[in-house]
Design brief:
2 domains, Tetracycline Repressor, domain 2, Arc Repressor Mutant, subunit A, 10 helices, mainly alpha, homodimer, 198 residues, DNA-binding
DNA sequence: TTCAAAATGACCGACCATCAGTCAATTAAG
DNA sequence: CTTAATTGACTGATGGTCGGTCATTTTGAA
């Protein structure tokens, strides 16, 4: 045998080394040669760790999402009321500090829409399912605690995809200038309807 | 002067000639040479009518959307109740006959997310604004007719982007297998909450 | 035990194919 | 003859491949 490198770790290293470059320019203007350069490896080596250019993005999203989820869990758990938890849940779509994640997510959706590849779609599905389960639990807890009416459960899916919709809409138009305000109005109204009146 | 061609019409002709090809493969696998071939013109001519490859998609969407809107208007007007109108409004996201339009829209969103260009974003914004105004009118009429509670108005934006969100979500995952059912459950529940009880 | 040959994984960058976009030359209508 | 319209060969960029090199470890004969 010869040198054995930690393939998993190196894959992460390469991906993260071009994170800034990628976030700045997006996948379209990121060349594999550039990636190789900033990662300090030869171009051929890139293809030892990634099947294609898209997979690099896939890896970056993967890494950052895991970090993000830990933070998210803490933030949500720290909230008392269900409404606050739900608002926190969608915070990623407008919170200042998550601007990088949004940029990444934008590219990720774009790639997934343009050339869906089994692995990426499956990853996206798993993420989405996990998030949705998490979201449903928040709603269910709200119902159990008597904060929300029973029917709220059926609104879960709609609410869940709404965040994504608002995100895409705001990314592809110039009109929605303040996601946070839009969401707030919506939540206030909806909670007026689904909160159990004391 | 010499030959004068109807630039606007020829632009449409070229765009439509490659519609099938584009819907089948998406923009990624569509080459400008191919477009030129099926349009029966030289490659250089394409660039007399379009600034870049993306603009061809832009034109196809534009043409088909206009056709679609006429149909949509008729369909919505034919419905009596507000709930039916709203469901009809989002029909494009699951209706069998609109499968082409969805494929186009998917590519369109993808392009807009990956390399936003002023003209396309503005077009998208205008479309979106028009649709939203239309949607708000439906809600407002519902309120005026006493079918919906006043608060429904504030839910308009949320409902509006939800359609888009569900569409994107279903395009990028494998889990949502039946958009129609998901939407129906959501609407039924929501209308249970916002409909004025007689 | 020694050490050179064999084996192997890691790495590389020249090269290839593809393709979006350009432009100088050509065509043809009036 | 003028000029709008058209064209396709050409260019530059870039994603991905592949033959080959290098460094380290294994092996087994002396």
């Amino acid at each position: 045998m010869a040198i054995i490198v930690d393939k998993v770790q190196k894959r992460k290293d390469i991906a993260l080394s071009c994170k800034e470059l990628f976030i700045k320019n997006g996948i379209k203007d990121l060349t594999v040669s550039e990636v190789a350069k900033v990662a300090g490896v030869g171009k051929g080596t890139i293809y030892e760790y990634f099947k294609n250019k898209e997979e690099i993005v896939f890896e970056i999203v993967n890494i950052l999402l895991q970090e993000h989820n830990i933070q998210k869990k803490l933030r949500i758990d720290s909230k008392e009321k269900t409404k606050e938890k739900i608002i926190e849940f969608f915070g990623v779509f407008y919170r200042e500090e998550d601007v990088e994640l949004r940029k990444l997510y934008k590219e990720f959706i774009s790639i997934n829409l343009a050339n869906p590849q089994r692995e990426m779609i499956e990853f996206q599905s798993t993420c989405s399912a996990t998030y949705f389960k998490w979201f449903e639990e928040i709603i269910q807890t709200g119902i159990n605690k008597g904060e929300l009416v029973l029917a709220s459960k059926n609104l879960a899916r709609g609410l869940f995809v709404m965040g994504e919709g608002l995100f895409v809409a705001s990314s592809t138009t110039t009109t929605i200038d303040n996601i946070k305000r839009e969401l707030d109005t919506f939540y206030d109204t909806l909670f007026e309807l689904i909160e159990v009146k004391k």
